[in-house]
Design brief:
The chain is an alpha/beta fold and about 400 residues long. It has 15 helices and 14 strands. It has 2 domains: about 220 residues, Rossmann fold (3-Layer(aba) Sandwich), CATH 3.40.50; about 160 residues, Glycogen Phosphorylase B (Rossmann fold, 3-Layer(aba) Sandwich).
Length: about 400
């Protein structure tokens, strides 16, 4: 069996989608599936094509058993919706080159969204190859754009995206969601038939991320946030909490990431005149285990928006596998996991006082922190192993979709 993964983002780029798709591809290889990836030349998150790929329109390479086909697209990561849509559209169109590059044809096309526009390419490819295609939703687009106020639902662009969403949901052979809340929205709000829906949640590589007993050994306790710094994530609450805990010389914050709100965050840290927080460049997935080994606890933040109640942030998976307790400043599935497994503390979203209090409590209770970390690790072993998650998803797809044909 051969599966083509169609995505605008893939390693060596660093990010949640890139990590998820790489681990999904590895899980498929583990199941004996041949995996091709058709993607753009890497440019995320800076909006500039990486040096090793500059000057290329097309490049083929292999990464850990995955055949990767890369093509140029307009690189842009500005906040402006229309520039970003142009970037998405350029790759959506150019991805049709997959017809001439992918030999032999795949048995299934797996399309990552966002960008939702890429679903059009998946639809056309499936028609040309006469094979089923699955739309993999890591975010409910365009709902999230509307919720963040980046686009008016009643605008021409907003109405066009809603029509595109309806068309793709109807034409897709199957739709995969990454959270139970998203599945519920697709079933009850979008009215997608239940037999068309599949579930592939975010996981963790439990063999790479290993727990380290560290909590009684640290004089200065590092609370780490590792992930995208975007308008949805509300990372500014960490800077505000850092100001409230600046009197604690044993507490230190580290933000590892990039994104459109990075400069705004840097200005906030400067304005608050705090020196107990560092903002560092994102690191490759291969370096994350070492980065987490030096941390005392992990921070996960989200804006206070009802849309995110069905969110299970990918950035919480690696800390769980690494045996780090989590302070979750948010609400929804991610927060429920932390509460239900006793793997950390949950505070209301965008509440810096509550976050600061939780950080100080953890700093003062290393034995409890150790227990929380072990609880999180057990949950990761039982429920987040990528190989198990991908195998279960593949079994469902083979049983329900591939037997029926396109």
């Amino acid at each position: 069996m051969k599966i083509l993964v169609l995505t605008q983002y893939f390693p060596p780029e660093v990010g949640a989608a890139q990590t998820r798709l790489y681990e999904t591809a590895q899980g498929l290889l583990h199941c004996g599936v041949n995996v091709d990836v058709f993607t753009s030349l890497p440019s995320y998150p800076r909006g500039e094509i990486f040096d090793d790929y500059k000057g290329h329109f097309y490049k083929k390479e292999q990464m850990d058993g995955i055949n990767i086909y890369r093509i140029w697209s307009y690189a842009n990561n500005e906040l402006g919706v229309f520039k970003r849509l142009f970037s998405y559209s350029s790759f959506t169109f150019l991805a049709l080159f997959a017809l001439t590059k992918i030999k032999p044809r795949p048995d299934l096309v797996f399309v990552e969204s966002p960008p939702l526009t890429l679903g059009l390419t998946g639809y056309f490819l499936s028609k040309m190859w006469v094979c089923p295609w699955i739309l993999n939703l890591s975010d409910l687009w365009p709902d999230s754009i509307f919720a963040l106020g980046a686009m008016n639902k009643e605008s021409l662009a907003g109405k066009s995206l809603l029509k595109l969403e309806s068309f793709l949901y109807k034409k897709a052979s199957g739709i995969t969601a990454v959270t139970e809340g998203m599945l519920s929205d697709l079933l009850h709000k979008k009215l997608i038939p239940k037999d068309k829906l599949y579930y592939l949640p975010n996981g963790a590589n439990v063999n790479v991320f290993r727990p380290v007993e560290r909590f009684n050994q640290q004089k200065q306790k590092k609370f780490i946030y590792a992930g995208r710094i975007g308008s949805a994530h509300g990372v500014d609450v960490i800077a505000k909490a850092a100001k409230l805990t600046k009197h604690r010389k044993d507490i230190y914050y580290e933000i590892v990431g990039d994104g459109p709100e990075l400069e705004s965050l840097r200005r906030l840290v400067s304005d608050l005149k705090i020196n107990n927080i560092d903002i560092l460049e994102p690191v490759p997935l291969t370096e994350m285990p070492q980065k987490l080994e030096t941390a005392y606890a992990a921070l996960v933040t989200l804006k206070d928006l009802s849309l995110f109640k069905g969110t299970r942030p990918a950035k919480m998976m690696a800390p769980l596998a690494a045996g780090l307790p989590i302070v979750d400043s948010g609400a929804g599935e991610g927060a429920d996991i932390v509460k239900d497994t006793s793997a950390g503390l949950v505070t209301p979203p965008e509440d810096e006082r509550a976050l600061a209090d939780a950080v100080m409590w953890l700093a003062d209770h290393p034995q409890d922190v150790s227990i929380m970390g072990k609880q999180g690790r057990k949950f990761a072993e039982d429920h987040l192993d990528w190989n198990v998650l991908v195998k279960n998803w593949l079994n469902d797809v083979q049983k329900c979709l591939l037997k029926k044909g396109n």
